[in-house]
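Bench notes, afternoon.
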Amino acid sequence: MSLTIAHPLRLKAVLGTFTAIVVLGLSNTAFGQGPFLNGFDLAESTIPVSEIVRGGPPRDGIPAIDNPKFLLSDAAQFLSDDELVIGLTRNGITRAYPLRIMLWHEVVNDTFGEEPVAVTYCPLCGTAVAFEAMIKDHKLTFGVSGLLFQSDVLMYDRQTESLWSQLLLKSVTGEQVGQPLTILPSRILTWGAWRKKFPGSEVLSTDTGFSRNYERNPYAGYESNQEIWFGVPLTRDEFKNKDLVLGVLIGEQAKAYAIPTLEDAKGLGPFHDVIGGVPIRFSYDRESREATMDHAETGEPISFIQSFWFAWQAFYPETEIWQPIKMKADNSGKLHISGETGKKHIIERSNDFKTWIPVGSLILSDETFVIDAPTSGHATEFYRVQREP
């Protein structure tokens, strides 16, 4: 009997967009009582004060860009095709922010039409996140506090001097304490791929108003080793510290999609996942290094954060980890199935790729589950495994 296997994916994911309802105003907390660090009042901090540390430079020692200038993509001769950029489209405006510039500044306060936006990057965690900067009709501008929490940058807004955690997506001290940030869909990809996709777009200029050597990487070698410069709780070891993951949140749930896994599973994409009844479609292109996520039915972009694994697991220690469903048959007719454990899977059989008949179900309890392939007597049979939504 010839046994051919097909395995389109229906997976469970923790994905989604953020819709933040934010109230701007004075809190009832009596500030000015300390403790203080880099001039910031840490009273009533929602994160442990003992875990807020100085990163080295003082407040604004890493200067945010407040008046960004842009070039048309064809004029950006300083970039090579394999360099990475953060891309963002809002209100009909498409812009790219080269990582070689973001390494030196970490925050760009920008405006897309009338919409204020903060584009942020933390070199220590490899995290690029764009946020809405309008909080209930108040425009906020952000700076770099010189402080870190779990190795990730703590930004501050200049209007109230509240501290904001990039990876927690909210304010953690000051008048804005507890206020969430609304994440905007952005992308990270090579400059060469970006230029092909958006030939008429704008790119952040090296004319930043600051004297920096943008030809030099101040973090040279950091990504290529597993050393972590500032302490974080390392409770998960499924991946190497500096492996990149795509982190996604819906409500209180988190899930990580490891880029090494996506690269290994390149023949299975695009991938599908489901969380809370929301169907997700996502893909990863090895050449452009670009990941895309959207709602599988509406096409609405899904926000995610690219991060080093050590940082994502520190902030979201209960994160789920996506694994592709894989199935193969051995010479004895047994099906070997692997994927995410603890999830129910449905096995289906077809003789013509048109009609699929359920022949069993299972909950994976280990990395590999082995069953006998039920046969219908046809010369050729096709099998697929789908994760139950």
